[in-house]
């Protein structure tokens, strides 16, 4: 049976389309048993073109200006199209031909269509898949809505993400916890916090790191963060990120942070970091060989020998503690990012801005 074809044409700016495609593909899995999840859903409607990708837990959607008819389809080989978009500039015309539904019960092939892209002297032709295969975005009933600066929140995430757990049995600890004016990460060994009074939430919730990594897609544009029971949405109007959230209470950070210290000493961050990097050269198993801090001297001892570096401190500390060198360096790196020169190290082990 031969079906007639209906042609629909739409035009977008090639560079805007390329940037949008690059953003949404970060939410698509590179491999999946469901091939369409590796692809991008395209929808032309009125004066907009909406691109969407998902792995069923995370969604990224970008809207750009467009002109032309109304249609929707799923690209095939979206990442290849992204790689060739660098050769396009100016107006890019989409010419979509949808198979007319047959009189008999349609097959998948009957409902697919073909796409022609034209940009300047360049042209390509591809089959595309029926839009009905693509998952429907979850509906959100927000309980709380906040105004968010994505650029600031992204920087805060970068400073605490080293402490996120990779234990799949502890879903909440794999996520960033939002509570009062803080965000936190914990993996059972380390705990990291970032405080900012510009965002204060009404009750705790958890955002997976995959969603936090998409915040640069907003390019600094202010957005709303809507939080429901099972989903959270970052939305600027032109960019939307939807993520599933785990249920649970997670760690009570305030109860886990020591309130009193038997000792507290000011340490130069550069001196501390350099001493640890020196000792790292002699560590052969970084998860089993701990650095010892005793009397202001950092040391490591193993079958190869003994190595040490003395810190410059105002007073000789009485504390004797052990820790993983790379764990401590991860934490020190975040203080250096905030352009601090010194920190206070306490007993029990705790790093604080001095």
CATH architectural designation of the largest domain: Roll
Order of strands in the sheet with most strands: 6-2-3-4-17-16-15-10
The CATH class of the largest domain, by name, is Alpha Beta
* Molecular shape: elongated
Counting DSSP H or I runs of 4 or more residues, the number of helices is 8
Largest sheet properties:
8 strands, antiparallel
- Which parts are unreliable, with pLDDT below 50 for 5 consecutive residues or more? none
Structural class: alpha+beta
Structure summary, number of beta strands:
24
Beta-strand level of the residues, as a percent range? Answer: 35-45%
Q: Would you give the CATH topology of the largest domain?
A: DNA Polymerase III, Chain A, domain 2
Query: For this structure, what is the CATH homologous superfamily of the largest domain?
Result: DNA Polymerase III, subunit A, domain 2
CA gyration radius, whole angstroms = 26 Å
Number of domains: 3
Mean pLDDT equals 90
Distance between the termini: 78 Å
Helix content: 10-25%
How would you describe what is shown here?
It is built from 8 helices and 24 strands. It has 354 residues and is α+β, with helices and mostly antiparallel strands. It folds into 3 domains: 129 residues, DNA Polymerase III, Chain A, domain 2, CATH 3.10.150.10; 112 residues, DNA Polymerase III, Chain A, domain 2, CATH 3.10.150; 94 residues, DNA Polymerase III, subunit A, domain 2 (DNA Polymerase III, Chain A, domain 2). The strands form 5 sheets. It has an 8-stranded antiparallel β-sheet with strand order 6-2-3-4-17-16-15-10. A hairpin with a 2-residue loop joins strand 19 and strand 20. The longest helix is centred in the C-terminal third of the chain and has 13 residues.
């Amino acid at each position: 049976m031969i079906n007639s074809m209906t042609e629909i044409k739409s035009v977008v700016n090639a560079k805007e389309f390329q940037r949008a495609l690059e953003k949404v593909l970060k939410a698509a899995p590179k491999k999946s048993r469901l091939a369409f999840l590796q692809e991008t859903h395209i929808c032309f409607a009125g004066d907009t073109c909406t691109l969407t990708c998902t792995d069923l837990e995370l969604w990224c959607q970008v809207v750009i200006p467009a002109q032309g008819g109304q249609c929707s389809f799923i690209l095939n080989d979206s990442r290849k199209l992204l790689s060739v978009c660098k050769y396009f500039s100016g107006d890019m015309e989409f010419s979509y031909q949808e198979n007319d539904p047959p009189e008999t019960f349609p097959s998948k092939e009957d409902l697919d269509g073909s796409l022609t892209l034209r940009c300047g002297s360049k042209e390509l032709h591809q089959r595309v898949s029926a839009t009905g295969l693509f998952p429907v975005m979850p509906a959100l009933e927000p309980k709380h809505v906040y105004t968010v600066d994505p650029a600031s929140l992204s920087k805060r995430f970068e400073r605490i993400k080293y402490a996120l757990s990779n234990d799949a049995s502890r879903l909440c600890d794999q996520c960033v916890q939002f509570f009062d004016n803080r965000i936190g990460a914990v993996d059972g060994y380390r705990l990291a916090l970032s405080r900012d009074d510009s965002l204060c939430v009404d009750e705790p919730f958890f955002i997976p790191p995959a969603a936090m990594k998409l915040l640069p897609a907003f390019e600094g544009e202010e957005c709303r963060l809507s939080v429901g029971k099972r989903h959270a949405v970052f939305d600027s109007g032109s960019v939307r990120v939807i993520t599933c959230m785990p249920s649970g209470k997670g760690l009570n950070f305030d109860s886990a942070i020591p309130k009193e210290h038997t000792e507290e000493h000011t340490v130069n961050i550069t001196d501390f970091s350099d001493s640890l990097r020196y000792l790292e050269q002699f560590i052969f198993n970084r998860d089993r060989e701990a650095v010892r801090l005793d009397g202001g001297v950092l040391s490591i001892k193993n079958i190869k020998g003994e190595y040490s570096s003395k810190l410059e401190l105002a007073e000789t500390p009485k504390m004797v503690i052990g820790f993983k060198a790379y764990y401590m360096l991860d934490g020190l790196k975040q203080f250096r990012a905030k352009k601090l020169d010194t920190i206070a190290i306490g007993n029990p082990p705790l790093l604080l801005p001095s």
